Amino acid sequence: MSDIASYAFACMHCGHGWEQSYAIEHHTNAEGERCVRYVADGRIVPSPLSRPVCQNCDGHVVRIMRAGQVSAVRAAAGGPHHRVPAAGPVEVPRVPGQAKEPHHWHLADLLHPFHRKAG
Fold first, then answer.
1. Is residue 81 part of a domain?
2. Which residues does residue 18 pair with via DSSP β-bridges, in sequence order?
3. Is 119 inside any structural domain?
4. What is the pLDDT of residues 46-97, one digit of tens each?
5. What domain range includes position 25?
6. Is 59 part of any domain?
7. ∠ Cα 80 75 87 (to 5°)
8. What's the whole-model pTM score?
9. Structural domain contains residue 50
């Protein structure tokens, strides 16, 4: 038996975001115990929920979200005809008379509206 699951990921270290779909295969081993195998792009991979690793910086502080979150943020940032720059800090132009340093935006900042409030 096989299911399909898709997730969106955002690295809290470098701001890189990506999405991945997995085939989740349910098997019974020789001892009769049930086991699960995750397959992505035709390769067996570890569970994406156990300890995800950033594809950009190999960081381990990765937020897992429902599929579509990363693509939705990218679409909101410029629509389908806008080229999305590589993840990383983006400099905001300095406004005349601005006293403080400009903010460096990361994908994590853009995903802030999707964070759930504890309560």
1. yes
2. 9
3. no
4. 888 888 899 899 999 998 888 876 766 666 666 544 454 455 554 555 556 6
5. 2-114
6. yes
7. 105
8. 0.55
9. yes
Please state the domain count of the chain: 1
d(CA 104, CA 101): 9
End-to-end CA distance of the chain: 37
Strands 34-40 and 43-45, bridge-based pairing: antiparallel
Sign of CA dihedral 102, 93, 87, 17: positive
pLDDT digits (tens, 9 = 90+) for 3-39: 888 888 999 999 898 888 889 899 888 899 998 899 9
Would you give the DSSP letter of residue 58? -
What Rg, from alpha-carbon coordinates, does the chain have? 18
H or E stretch including 107? helix 107-110
Q: Which helix (H) or strand (E) holds 66?
A: strand 62-66
